[in-house]
Write a structure and sequence with these properties.
This protein is an alpha/beta fold. Helix content is 36%, strand content 27%. It has a single domain (4-86, 149-227), classed as Rossmann fold, CATH 3.40.50.300. It has 10 helices and 10 strands. A 6-stranded mixed β-sheet has the order 6-7-8-3-9-10, sandwiched between helices. A 4-stranded antiparallel β-sheet has the order 2-1-4-5, with helices on one face. The longest helix is centred in the last third of the chain and has 18 residues, at 162-179.
């Protein structure tokens, strides 16, 4: 059984249809990228899965349970972590305090800090004092504190230098291997997606219009020109 299943999901924001009949599955431990042009509905897709946007039609199932009418905090408790676009760390809080926000106990924070030695060394620094790459790692670490089984990650490369992004990619690979979570990745930078996922779903105007192995879709000039511009 797929850990995540969307069945004909539509979602509206301020009266406008943003998602239109999206169906997709993600197996346990699988990494899938959702790609497409700006405004295709990628961020709304992640926000709908995590309960931040209401489902207007269709159903979402996480580990076999329907979540279409669940509030976001209950969906989170089913094992869903969300790393939002733009990182959104708490600038005035320390690194440790950022991690404690979603923790049930200190042991969870300590376990995650073992996977992020750079953050452990800056545990008393404010979130706002970190570089963009360090903030992205903090946002990732914060989402991993409750040990999610599904991680939703929105544009991790946005505003990050390539060298720093290579380090973030290595950390994502390491933590996914250690914690065995499934991942839905929204990412505009094709080389980043190629490093992290096996399968790609292409969105256009709120619908999924293509799907296939990452190596085929993200290196196909016709697909890139059709769906990314």
């Amino acid at each position: 059984m797929a850990f995540l299943e969307l069945k004909n999901v539509s979602a509206d924001i301020l009266g406008s249809r943003i998602l239109n009949g999206v169906s997709m599955t993600v197996d346990s431990g699988e990494a899938v990228a959702v790609v497409g042009a700006n405004g295709a509905g990628k961020t709304t897709l992640l926000r709908t899965i995590s309960g931040l946007v209401r489902v207007s039609r269709g159903d979402i199932r996480i580990d076999g349970r329907s979540t279409a009418r669940m509030p976001a905090h209950r969906i989170s408790r089913l094992g869903v972590g969300h790393v939002p676009e733009g990182r959104q760390v708490f600038a005035a809080l320390t690194v440790l305090e950022n991690l404690q926000v979603g923790a049930r106990d200190s042991a969870q924070v300590d376990q995650v800090l073992e996977l992020f030695p750079m953050l452990a060394g800056k545990r008393d620094a404010s979130g706002g004092s970190l570089s963009g790459g360090q903030q992205q790692m903090l946002a990732l670490a914060r989402a991993l504190v409750p040990r999610p089984r599904l991680l939703l990650m929105d544009e991790p490369s946005l505003g990050i230098a390539p060298a720093a992004m290579e380090e973030i990619i290595a950390v994502i690979k390491q933590t996914q291997a250690a914690l065995d979570y499934a991942m839905v990745l929204v990412e505009q930078t094709s080389w980043v997606a190629l490093e992290l996922v096996e399968r790609v779903c292409v969105m256009q105007r709120g619908s999924l219009v293509a799907e296939g192995p990452a190596a085929e879709i993200l290196t196909h000039d016709n697909l890139i020109s059709a769906y990314f511009t």
